[in-house]
Amino acid sequence: MATSEDHIALAAEYALGTLDAEERAQVETMMAVDSEFAALVQAWEFRLGPLNQMVGSVEPRPVVWDNIKAAIGHASAPQAPLVLPEPPAATVTPPPPKPIMDDSEFGSAFDPDEPQQPRAIPQPTEIRRPRVSFGDSNVVALTSRVKRWRGIASAATAIAAALLVTLSLQIFRPDALPNAIRPKPRIQTVEVKTPAPAFAPSAQYVALLQGQNGGPAFILTIDGATKNFTVRKVGAPSEPGKSFELWLISDKLPQPRSLGVIGADDFTARPVLSGYDPDVINGATYAVTVEQAGGSPNGQPTSAPIFTGKLIETVPGASGSTPR
To answer: In whole angstroms, how far apart are CA 32 and each of 5, 17, 25, 27, 225?
Structure first.
């Protein structure tokens, strides 16, 4: 028998056990008369056998068998086994026996010298194998099952192709996918530890603010890194109802700039130099005037400076002598 896709599908369903009783009987009949088809079924059973071994056996409850018996009419008589009809034996018609004749039957009419006519030799009868024929309904049922298998296989192939395309787009072209199935970008945080910068001492500047009589009255100290300054009162006497105010005087500025009132304590700290350029800070003259209590009312000196001085570098910085 020439094996077709229909026979392969039928053999596979038989091995899976998805056929009904009538279809299984038809397959078993085909196996009995066709050794090639029987070998095909055995091959499918060998392939699908491990699937059965992977599933553990489950004993159904007794009520299941009761329901099955009630559904089929509780047939108690055992089903008769399927008996295949014996094929008719080939009949070979032997040739008719050759009549035995003697000379007495021919009498004087038999002449041994007279030529005899040749007799016809009987031919043996042809032995033909009986053909097994299945009804049209069986062919239709087999065809429908094959179509169903082909439909399932086509759907599975289409799903696999769609998944392959989606996976390829996720790897190579994620922007082409809709937002719902587009892979989320991976954000990886990497901690990079950098060594701490070496300590670099900042430059320190100082100015001695003194009057005409000599001797320092105030000591002005400026930190080159932060531009913060500190004023220390040394020898300036305090006047009742008056305040000392510090000024920055530079030729780069149109008028003196107030750096604030010097407090009554020994030390006064201010961060007001951060808005000035280093050149202005380095080249400026720092002066102290006597103003009314609380400082100048109009932001300009109301009297002549009594103490002045310029910056000098006392501690050099790592990057130069200019305060930053």
So the answer is: 20, 18, 11, 9, 104
Cut 0.70: pTM above it: no
Say which amino acid occupies 101.
M
Question: Looking at the DSSP assignment, which residues form a beta bridge with residue 223?
Answer: 204
Structure tokens that stand for 256 in this block: 């003196």
Location of structure tokens 């039957």: 105
**Which residues of the chain, if any, have pLDDT below 70?**
1-2, 51-56, 74-144, 146-147, 151, 169-184, 195-202, 317-324
Q: pLDDT value at position 189?
A: 81
DSSP 251-312: TTSSS-EEEEEE-SSSEEEE-GGGGS-HHHHHH-EEEEEEEETTS-SSSS-SS--SEEEE-E
What are the φ and ψ backbone dihedral angles of 127, each rounded to 5 degrees?
Answer: -95, 120
Which CATH code fits 204-315?
2.60.40
Do 247 and 289 form a contact (C-beta atoms < 8 A)? Answer: yes
Cα torsion angle, 17, 18, 21, 22, sign: negative
Nearest to 138 by CA among 37, 38, 7: 7
Q: What is the pLDDT of residues 163-188, one digit of tens each?
A: 777 777 666 666 666 666 666 677 77
Long-range contacts of 214-218, Cβ-Cβ distance < 8 Å, separation of 24 or more: 217/288, 217/306, 217/307, 218/244, 218/262, 218/288, 218/307, 218/309
- Measured CA to CA, the distance from residue 125 to residue 128 in angstroms comes to 10
DSSP 8-state class, residue 77: S
How do the domains of the chain map onto residue ranges? Answer: 204-315
**CA atoms 298, 206, 223, 252: torsion sign:** positive
